[in-house]
Amino acid sequence: MPSDLERAMETLIVVFHRYADTEGNKASLSRKELKLLMEKELSSFLKTQKDPAAIDRIMKDLDSNGDGEVNFEEFVSLVVGLSIACEQLYQAQKQAAGVKKQ
Ligand SMILES: [Ca+2]
Ligand SMILES: [Ca+2]
């Protein structure tokens, strides 16, 4: 049976391809595919970014090889960046909860 971490990695691959396979290059996300992925899979994150230009900024930030698309490697850097931000929040919340108990 796969572990939690193995399942998480498989999920990343499956989710990426669910959107990347929709149009054009099947190995990368177009702007439209990225937008859909963000809306469906990262809706709580996107809610804090009401700016309609946010998706363009995110796309530009992620597209490190400058081909106008987001490949799996570039997508993973988004997930890692968000995970780091979430982990910091998790630590802060744990600390705040600890302080309250004392
Ligand atoms: Ca594609
Ligand atoms: Ca790219």
Automatic annotation (TrEMBL):
Keywords for this protein: Calcium, Metal-binding, Repeat
SMART domains: EFh, S_100
SUPFAM superfamilies: EF-hand (SSF47473)
GO molecular function: calcium ion binding; calcium-dependent protein binding
Gene3D superfamilies for this protein: EF-hand (1.10.238.10)
EF-hand domain segment(s): 50-85
Protein origin, superkingdom: Eukaryota
Name of this chain's protein: Protein S100
One Pfam family cited in the UniProt record for this chain: S_100
InterPro entries named among the record's database cross-references: EF-hand-dom_pair, EF_Hand_1_Ca_BS, EF_hand_dom, S100/CaBP7/8-like_CS, S100_Ca-bd_sub
GO CC entries: cytoplasm; extracellular space
